[in-house]
Amino acid sequence: MLSTSSFGMHTGLITMTGNAKACLWRGITNVWHGSSRSKVCRLQPDGYQQQRSFRLQISADRGNVESGIPATPKAIEADGGERLFQYVQAQVREPEILRTLRQETSKMRGGVMQVTPDQGQFLAMLARLLGAEKCIEVGVFTGYSALAVAMVLPDSGCLVACDRSEESLAIAERYFRLAGVSQKVDVRLGMAVDTLKELLAQGDAGRYDMAFLDADKRMYPEYYELLLQLVRPGGLVIVDNVLWHGTVADSSVMDTKTQSIRDFNDFLLNDDRIDYSLVTVGDGMSLCRKR
Ligand SMILES: C[S@@+](CC[C@H](N)C(=O)[O-])C[C@H]1O[C@@H](n2cnc3c(N)ncnc32)[C@H](O)[C@@H]1O
Fold first, then answer.
1. Does the keyword Phosphoprotein apply (predicted)?
2. What is the model's pTM?
3. 13, 110, 192, 236: which could form a disulfide with 138 (CB 3.0–4.6 Å)?
4. Ligand 1, atom 16: nearest CA belongs to which residue?
5. 205 lines ligand 1 (CB under 6 A)
């Protein structure tokens, strides 16, 4: 059940009770089933979804005394996550072209799928830290994360951008042109597994510095194995949505998608081919550095 103090306005408060959780962004409502705790979230005036796993996950859980791990990081606990998320987004140096793309995408059906501004900036930072020349993205959509990375690649660099949606890629390509990075982006329309296998067949194993995985979640294990072959030792495979709106930590949620992400996270935790760090940026990103 949804109730709201000013439903339809960009700054309204939504209270979620019963068997529904909702997260709202510009003019679009997404409701999914989950636990019955009452939640509050604020509509976004600026076109990005609140992908705050922690905010949705705040519970009566006060942490584990035995392990010494607190319930939530101090800043989030003090704030509830809401203002802090807004504050973090306001600290992003978002180029105008990315802001325009984000705002256009947020009005589209499925606009919630694009990464948040801090994620885009974080990916660009990782590409710079790696001195990346060759990157791959699996799951481009309208191109926010791909553009964030392509913009920081050197002129000699290349991003292979994979997606199966012609319609989404058309928007992405328009923005690549507007940003003047088209020559650095190799757009591949089709099923991403086929594209990755083609790259391996043409001898690209170990040639990539960084890969970003943000497509169909149940295929993550297969993409990951292919991407791990494509990146060089010391290169990064970055996996998005590994917290799945916080549901991975809620033992009452047992749907197959959540469970597949939990299983995949556990697999990464134990994979000794990589150095591994799960960071709570956006909806959770796993950094997998190939050893
Ligand atoms: C979460 S969105 C990607 C968001 C994007 N990274 C961004 O920042 O806007 C997932 C994308 O994966 C694509 N996708 C899903 N399954 C795919 C597959 N099997 N092969 C290629 N692309 C796929 C979808 O078409 C969709 O555009």
1. no
2. 0.82
3. 192
4. 216
5. no
Per-residue model confidence as pLDDT tens digits over 66-122: 667 766 666 666 666 778 889 999 999 999 999 999 999 999 999 999 999 999 999
Across 11-20, 84-93, 158-167, least confident range: 11-20
Asked if 108 and 84 sit in the same domain, the reply is no
DSSP code per residue over 209-234: EEEEE-S-GGGHHHHHHHHHHHEEEE
Q: How far does the centroid of ligand 1 lie from the alpha carbon of residue 269, in Å?
A: 24
Question: What band does 64 get if pLDDT is binned at 50, 70 and 90?
Answer: low
Does the beta carbon of 57 lie inside 6 Å of ligand 1? no
Ligand 1 closest atom vs CA 148: 8
Q: How much is the ipTM here?
A: 0.99
| pLDDT score at 132 | 98
Q: Which residues contact 6 (CB under 8 A, 6 or more apart)?
A: 12, 13
106 and 85, same structural domain? Answer: no
How, if at all, do strands 158-163 and 185-189 pair? parallel
Range of the domain at 42: 2-90
Q: Whose CA is nearest to atom 7 of ligand 1?
A: 114
Beta bridge partners of 158: 134
Of the three residues 90, 115, 146, the one that is the final residue of a domain is 90
Q: What angle do CA 22, 101, 154 make, to 5 degrees?
A: 125
Query: Which atom of ligand 1 sits closest to the CA of residue 219?
Result: 19
